[in-house]
Amino acid sequence: MAAKTEIRKKKILIRTLMYGAITTALYAAVFSHASSITELFAKGGFYAALPIATVFIFSFAHGAFSSNLWSVLGIEAITKQAAKRKTAPAPRPIQKPRARLRMSA
Amino acid sequence: MIDHALDAAKFIDLTWMNVSFLFIVGFIGGLVSGFIGSGGAFVLTPAMMSLGVPAAVAVASNMCHKFPKAMVGAYKRYKYGQVDLKLGIVMAASATVGVQAGIKIQELILNKWGEAGSNLYVSLSFVAVLLLVGSYVFYDAFKTSNSEGGDPVPKLARRLQSINLPPMIHFKTADLTISLWFTIPVGFATGLLAATIAVGGFVGVPGMIYVVGASGLISSASELVIAFLMGFGGTVKWAMHGMVDIRLTLIILAGSLVGVQLGAIGTTYVKENMIKIVMGTIMLIVAVSRALAVPQYLNQLQLMDVDKFTLSILDMVSFATMCLALAVGAVIIIGSMLKGRRAEYAAQTSESYEHV
Questions:
Q1: What pLDDT is stored for residue A92 in this prediction?
Q2: Domain extents for chain A?
Q3: Does the beta-carbon distance from B250 to A54 stay under 8 Å?
Q4: What band does B355 get if pLDDT is binned at 50, 70 and 90?
Q5: Do A51 and A41 contact (CB within 8 A), yes or no?
Q6: Residue B219, min C-alpha distance to chain A (Å)
Q7: What does the pLDDT look like over B150-193, one tens digit per residue?
Q8: Angle, vertex CA B133, rays to CA B130 and CA B137, nearest 5
Q9: For residues B65 and A95, which has the higher predicted lDDT (pLDDT)?
Q10: What confidence score (pLDDT) does residue B39 get?
Q11: What's the rounded Cα separation, in Å, for the pair B174 and A85?
Q12: How far apart are CA B328 and CA B324, in angstroms?
């Protein structure tokens, strides 16, 4: 059990370092050419795709890094089932009397 | 850090002070958003403007950081089983219509009373909505914390859920069935408020709790889905006008992506009504902050006579109060997380003693 926990901890640490390195490289790439990139991304029109794609890439790398970072620091979610609440009974569809065919002689 | 000079009218120079300030505000904003589903945006735009960023660039850069932050927060809370994707999408669809209506109202006011009139309308909406909704959320949180029966479905929501008005929609995660016609006004109001004060969640989350009948946990998590969809749409519009300063966006994002995950984790440590307490507290403090900004606009419209010195003091106090709202929210979240963690640790320790 303890060995398993150790392996898990090691895996998380490796992932944190890996995503940390990717995130650092991404920030370094943008901020080393900050002015040119800022101007290019603010050209408008179809260039709008550039800032949007950038924030998606950053949120993937940096998001994964920070998620693993909190785990390394021992801050993880407590998994507990949310208590079921009393809700109103689902309304029933209005019952209409079935149409009958009347046969008269 | 700078390879060549940028257009000074549009882009500010970055100093370490600016970067640190935006990173910290981004982190706290992210923490609050991850916990209550919204927040942060109302401080970030004025914070950027206080650094000299033009209003349009501040709004656009803020929005461009908001949607990926909401996406990461929503993903995290989805993993905890707190997100009702269908509820988020249904609400976001009607919120889009609300945004358009909000923009039209803003345009009408701007044409009739100019910029000061528009600012006054925004501030008065802030004060009225936040005081009304914030007080009720706070009162309800206080009431449920004193009752022993947990967090029951509000009376209004229970009544609405029992009305059979097709099309009826079942929300699986929220575990409720309600007519689409009752979700539309909530989504619409969320969009309307988002277009007016930039924080739709202050109506969206209470609306989902008290009108639709979802729990605080589900509502705040599903609000992140709405924030993602609406933020994405808004960003496309602003980016097409070339208003996004990617440097500012990435700095705030760096802080908020760390904060939003902590906020999301925090929801698993605390009791459900803590979300209402944090939300109510922030809303009431923000209402005070916006009330302090009202004399400035009344003065511009020549409806009130206030000297310049008093106005500048009021402006400063208003901004400081807004930052205080965010800080108080963050302190309550971290405090309740630590309390929840200690309780969990104590429970685990006593359990292991029982097994010995």
A1: 58
A2: 2-72
A3: yes
A4: low
A5: yes
A6: 13
A7: 678 888 999 999 998 889 999 999 999 999 999 999 999 998 88
A8: 120
A9: B65
A10: 74
A11: 10
A12: 6
| CA B150/CA B153 separation, integer angstroms | 10
Contact B182, B118 (CB under 8 A): no
Contact with chain B for residue A57, Cβ under 8 A:
no
Domain boundaries of chain B, sorted by first residue: 17-334
- Site from A32, A37, A50, A67 to mutate, B interface, most B CB atoms within 10 angstroms: A67
What span, in angstroms and rounded, lies between the C-alpha atoms of B220 and B30?
A: 13
For chain A, what is the mean pLDDT? 84
Task: Give the whole-angstrom CA distance, residue B164 versus residue B101.
Answer: 28
What's at B41, amino acid-wise? A
Model pLDDT for residues B258-295, shown as the tens digit of each residue: 999 999 999 998 888 888 899 899 889 988 988 888 88
Neighbours of B247 (CB within 10 A): 25
At B132 the pLDDT is 92
Chain centroid to Cα B111, Å, comes to 28
- The pLDDT score that the predictor gives to residue A14 is 95
> What one-letter code names the amino acid at B335?
G
Contact A55 B245 (CB under 8 A): no
For B1, nearest residue in chain A (alpha carbons): A32
Q: Give the nearest chain B residue to A44 (CA atoms).
A: B242
Rounded to whole angstroms, the Cα distance separating B200 from B93 reads 13
For chain A, how many residues are written?
A: 105
